[in-house]
Amino acid sequence: MSTRVPARAGKFITLEGIEGAGKSTLAQFMSAWLGRHGFTVRLTREPGGTPLAERVRQIVLERGAEPVSPLTETLLMFAARALHVQNVIRPALARGEWVVCDRFTDATRAYQGSGRGVDAALIDALALAVHGDLKPDCTLLLDLPVRVGLARARTRQGATADRFEAETVGFFEKVREGYLALARREPQRLRIIDAAAPLSEVEQRIAQALGELQAREGRA
Prior knowledge:
Elements (H helix, E strand, L loop, with lengths): L11 E5 L6 H14 L4 E5 L5 H11 L8 H25 L3 E5 L2 H11 L4 H12 L6 E6 L2 H12 L11 H17 L4 E5 L4 H18 L4
Parallel strand pairs: 1-3, 1-4, 2-3, 4-5
C-alpha cells in the first residue's frame, strides 16, 4: 500500500543562510525526512533549478574578468528565478508536491539588498513581477557567525571559491544582518536555526520545524 500523500496543495519550504551554513546537506536531510513521512518532494536550488537557470547560475558565480554590477547581479538572479518559478516550483506545487528550495528571494534581499546595497523597493518590485503572491510557507534560516561559515566554505572550496565565497568578512556581516532583519520582520515564516551547533542537533531542530508544519496541515 502506498504511503504517498494524495494530490493536494503542496508546500514551499526554503533554506537560507550565508556560505558554510550547510544548506545543501540539510536540504537533502529535509527531503529524506519528508519522504519518510509520505510526502512527494521536489528538491531544488537557486540560482538554478532548470537547465537554462543553471546556465545563468554559472554566469552569476564565475569569477571572470568582466565586472558584474550589483544591479546586473540582481537582474540575473531574477531572470533565473523567473525560469525556476514557471518551470519547476509552480508546477510541483500544483501537483501537491512539497518543494524544498536552497535559497529564494530572501537571499536576494540579503545578498544584493543588504550586502550590495541594491534598493529594497526595486527588489520587491522584481519579486512581485516574477512570482507575484508566491512566497515560502516556511523558511529555515541557518544562522552562524560569519567567520565560522567562511572557514567551513573555504576549507571545502579552496582555490575554486566562487564570486560570493571570495567576498570579504564585512560583506557577509551585512548579509547576515540582512537575514536576521528579515527574520525579525516575519517571525511566523522565518525560523532561525543555530547552524553552528553539532549536525545532529541542527537536524533535530529542522525535523521539529517540519513536524510542526506537518501538524498544521492536519497530518500529525
